[in-house]
Specification:
5-stranded antiparallel sheet, Beta-galactosidase, Chain A, domain 5, mainly beta, single chain, 7% helix, 413 residues, 8-stranded antiparallel sheet
Length: 413
């Protein structure tokens, strides 16, 4: 270095050695690969095929009377297995693995081994029901000043979509592996006038099985004209096993402080009544948790003569808001096996139906006889007959709107 007076300034030898060393190191570093600490983090290895969820298996389930072929889709994840058919978008079985290695899996859903059982008359085992699930009083409703008359298939009332509801139709199916696990998406176009409903409705039901033991059911719909929609999943659960008889020994918690009393035709009276002091009280704070048999043994206070014992009523889900949040609706447990089912949903109601009208005449999988109270339904939904109660959460769907209903069944063992 030369200052302004022209005289050179000599650096001390030690400083020259330090500077030289630093320069040499920098030149060496520039000529070498980027050290690991400065490199981009390595991309994660693609998991082997065995670690990824398997694609849903597909097989022929049978032929419909008109010759069309129905298929059965199998979802496997985390030791759990679900089978669903495109006829009625029906859950035909759900296997929960044993608690210990080597223990057999248990099928906890009532149903049939073959398509013929579902084509025949049955109480909506495992079905996707619609266009409007549950009951509509008198089989008629008014929408935008026009009266629509529906098929009546429950005395004078309309039930679960009518004579040929969504549970009796062949859906299109798209099996795939989604972000949460193996899945199958079913779609159906219901034409204007189908069972008396206005507007063409496009419906979708997607089943997803997770490795954590969750069966997720997502239901959606759009329309080209104002109509009403209330899609409902209708599985009958018996956590002791589908062939094990009555669910009277199961324990139940329903996260609701109010329920809907009904008339002799099971149509809500319009009152939200407190559950306290009634056979309908299954609040989770009760200790010990109520056994289902306590309700089966006690006739409901509003039951008509000849009504089978057991609950078949809608409950008002606690703290519900129309914000799409999943809230716990109910927990069902079989104390003997330890199996537990938790149901979460974004809907305002849950119909608790204790299989009161099963009478032993239906023979299901492996010849099982479905006795009275042989299964319990937990149907999340809009409240029954909502179209006649404008102050309740609405079942109306207009063009440009998207109907959505999500329910999660989480199993532990």
């Amino acid at each position: 270095m030369t200052p302004r007076d022209g005289k050179a300034v000599r650096r001390p030898p030690r400083l020259r050695r330090v500077v030289g060393g630093v320069l040499a190191a920098m030149l060496g570093w520039l000529g070498s690969p980027i050290p690991p600490s400065a490199a981009e983090p390595p991309m994660p290895d693609v998991p082997p095929a065995a670690a990824r969820p398997a694609e849903p298996a597909v097989r022929v389930f049978g032929s419909l009377p008109d010759g069309r072929e129905a298929r059965l889709f199998t979802l496997d994840a985390g030791g759990f297995r679900a089978t669903i058919t495109d006829f009625g978008a029906i859950l035909t079985s759900f296997l929960v693995p044993g608690r210990n290695a080597g223990d057999p899996a248990t099928d906890v859903v009532l149903g049939f081994d073959n398509l013929a059982g579902y084509v025949g008359k049955h109480p909506y085992f495992g079905a996707t029901v619609g266009r409007c699930g549950n009951r509509i009083a008198g089989g008629a409703f008014e929408l935008d000043g026009k009266t629509y008359r529906l098929a009546t298939n429950n005395g004078p009332n309309h039930l679960h979509g009518g004579l040929v509801g969504f549970d009796k139709k062949l859906w299109s199916a798209r099996p795939h592996v989604g972000a949460r696990g193996p899945a199958v998406e079913f779609s159906l176009v219901s034409p204007d006038g189908d069972e008396g409903y206005p507007g063409q409705l496009t419906a979708r039901t997607t089943y997803t099985l997770t490795a954590e033991g969750e069966l997720i059911v997502e239901m959606e719909a759009t329309t080209d004209a104002p109509t009403i929609v209330n899609l409902v999943h209708h599985s009958y659960w018996n956590l002791a096993g589908q062939a094990s008889g009555s669910i009277a020994g199961h324990e139940l918690a329903v996260f609701a402080d109010r329920y809907l009393p009904v008339d002799a035709g099971s149509i809500p009276t319009g009152v939200f009544a407190p559950v306290a002091g009634t056979p309908f009280d299954f609040r989770p704070e009760l200790a010990p948790r109520r056994r289902v048999g306590s309700a089966i043994e006690a006739l409901p206070p509003d039951a008509a003569p000849g009504t089978p014992r057991g609950v078949d009523h809608d409950y008002v889900v606690r703290d519900w808001q129309p914000d799409g949040t999943l809230r716990i609706a109910a927990i069902l447990k079989d104390p003997a096996s330890g199996r537990t089912l938790e149901v979460r949903s974004d809907q305002p109601g849950v119909q608790v139906y204790m299989g009161n009208f099963l009478d032993g005449t239906l023979h299901g999988k492996a010849g099982a006889v479905y006795v009275p109270n042989g299964g319990l339904c937990l149907e999340t939904q809009k409240h029954p007959d909502s179209i006649h109660h404008p102050e309740w959460p609405s079942v109306r769907l207009a063009p440009g709107q998207n109907y959505r209903h999500v329910m999660v069944h989480r199993f532990t063992r």
